[in-house]
Amino acid sequence: MGSSAVVVGGGIGGLAAAIGLRLIGWEVTVIERAPVLDDAGAAISLHANGIRALDALGVGEVIRAAARPQYSGGTRNPAGGRLARMDGAALERELGTPIVGIPRATLHRLLREALSPGSLLLGAEAASVDRSDPARPRVPLGDTVLEADLVVAADGLNSRLRTQLFPHHPGPAYSGSTVLRAITERPVDVRGDFELTWGRGAEFGHIALADGRAEWHAVLNSPAGVRYPDPLAEMRRRFSGWHEPIPALLSATRPGAVLHHDIHELTTPLPAYVVGRTALLGDAAHAMTPNLGQGACQALEDAAVLSAALATEPTVESALTRYDTERRPRSQSVARAARLAGRMGQQLTHPLAIALRNTALRLTPSRTTIQAILRHANWTPPSLGPLDATAPYPCPPERP
Predict the structure, then answer these.
(1) pTM score > 0.90 for this model?
(2) Contact by Cβ (8 Å): 239, 204
């Protein structure tokens, strides 16, 4: 069994993979192309499966301490009418842990702090993997070459390593939606820990954070590449007349804090997540739309499964085969479900379709809503063997 790895990409998935590999005794080097880590970004929700993966990697408690549990909220229409209610306490009873909200910058920082000192290389871009020696892949970095037993390609949506390994794959496709988001500059009195509002071809949501501030996001049907001279002013215009706390959230936001990104996904699934001794992970393997809040959670699952396979399988090859077998079907299924959720949610534009959806949501029992969340969130990480950092969870077996 090998004992050294190069992780390409210092995002959530790459950092989590490095933590897991270090936990099982591997030497790890993380390559991040950004020369400076400015910790930009908004915030995310982590479902039980993501939290459990973090527990398996030994960092769950420190993440929980920095996050805010989500117990209240749900889905509304632009006038504020309730479409569905989120019962966070019921989810916690089922899963043993609530959904939590945390700034991405905080999550990144805490994951970096769990790495070995000196293991993160900034300003280093890996464009390819040299696989001429099947047992010792090499990553060229200018005049330097890093050699290891394993390369983890966690280099994101526009992964250069994925392009090298699968040159005929079409790559990411535009989803038809664009997202603007920010964290408020000051605390805001919001009425729910997490809430979504669905209008015609538009969604506005917020996540309440532990320090009283809140993250908001606005998802719009839009051609790719559209940008606004004043994004915050455009959001105030676009969501004028929508219910509180949407105006309050926008008023509490500094104009320069608004981020704007088009949403892309891998609509064509990869035929494998492993080529030789290179494993793809996170968005490089299965970039998905954010409609289920599962993108980061699936990357964390990848990291936990990869670490467990390498800790318990007899060879790197058998471990990577197991990783691909376990991760590809599940993550690609979640990606399909997220795409469908977007089409039935924010992307709807026909008034009759919107009315039918809203009526169906109002009539859906709370238990059915919980079951829909459990379908993806009720996941238990595999054992890391003698180094296992997981704890048992009071939950039923995973739903099919």
Answers:
(1) yes
(2) yes
Same-domain status, 271 and 324: yes
- Taking only the tens place, the pLDDT of each residue in 323-347 is 999 999 999 999 999 999 999 999 9
Say if residue 209 is in the same domain as residue 60.
no
Q: How many CB atoms lie within 10 A of CB 123?
A: 11
The pLDDT tens digits for 251-272 are 999 999 999 999 999 999 999 9
Residue 210 has which token pair?
């532990």
DSSP 169: S
Beta carbons of 143 and 286 less than 8 angstroms apart? no
Looking at the structure, tell me whether residues 258 and 277 fall in a common domain: no
Q: Same structural domain for residues 68 and 138?
A: yes
Domain check: are 184 and 159 in the same one? no
Alpha carbons within 13 A on the beta-carbon side of 28: 26
Cα separation, 298 vs 6, in Å, equals: 20
- Domain range for 232 is 174-265
- CB-CB neighbours of 330 under 10 Å: 18
Domain count, the chain: 2
Residue 75 DSSP SS3: strand
Nearest to 163 by CA among 123, 124, 126, 121: 126
